[in-house]
Structure prediction request, 253 residues.
Amino acid sequence: MSLNAKKDVTPIADGFSRPNQTAPTDWSAYSSAYDLLSMHNPAYQALMQDFSAFFATIEVPQRIYDVGGGTGNYTEIAARAYPGSEIYLIEPDTSMIRSARSKLAAYDNIRFHNLALEDVKGTDACDLVICVHALYAMPEQMQRLGDLHRLLKPGGYLYLIDLGRRMNVADWRKYLFSELRRRHGLIGALRIFWQGREVAKQNKAICEAQESGTYWMHSAAELVSAVRNAGFEIISQKTVYRGYSDLLVCRAK
Ligand SMILES: C[S@@+](CC[C@H](N)C(=O)[O-])C[C@H]1O[C@@H](n2cnc3c(N)ncnc32)[C@H](O)[C@@H]1O
Prediction:
């Protein structure tokens, strides 16, 4: 498999490359608090449980890509479940991938690639592509769905979760605070909220990028239609993440 970057990218210290672009969300700033709030967010935890349950429905995938893998939470579930498989975490943000590298250092079956999806080469290479809450933030999402399809062998699986609805920051703040307060009491909730304040800031940036049309907002039906147009068969579909996101399990035709 080739994971070479295209030419219009800047080499960086770790030998891989990332594109020259500024994202509406400061994913680097987000990375510092990402895992803290994710671990305290029952809606995020429910997504990870769904993902683990998905493995019972498929044969062992030999090669797996986690595209927009962030701090590596889905990569870790896959690496633990499939110690004999090759797992590639594809992530353009340097801070996000640094967190992933340090967290997952004990696994010898993970390769880290500091790249955006649009800079990943490789065709018919893998059995499973994971893409969770990243597609909406990518440029030209229809072409990116084509890229995800290109990476897969015919019959390979795409495990796709995408944020489709407007990120209502006040609603999430209320939800998370009440969950934290229930589990950790008022002082504990306030402390975690303060430590995770960057997440609220970046969620606001996500909302603004959605409203300006930079990030993709879609209904479940619109995502289904786009995924089908990219050459996938849809195996299952459900609304997740408190109604904000869609989960599609698909196979490449
Ligand atoms: C909300 S995080 C999700 C991280 C992880 N998948 C998870 O669910 O925990 C979105 C990630 O998408 C990444 N991303 C943004 N644009 C991308 C692109 N063009 N190609 C690949 N990943 C991208 C960001 O850097 C960020 O780490």
About this structure: Residues 9-252 form a domain with the Rossmann fold fold (CATH 3.40.50.150). Residues 27, 67-70, 73-74, 90-93, 96, 116-118, 132-134, 137-138 surround S-adenosylmethionine (CB under 6 Å).
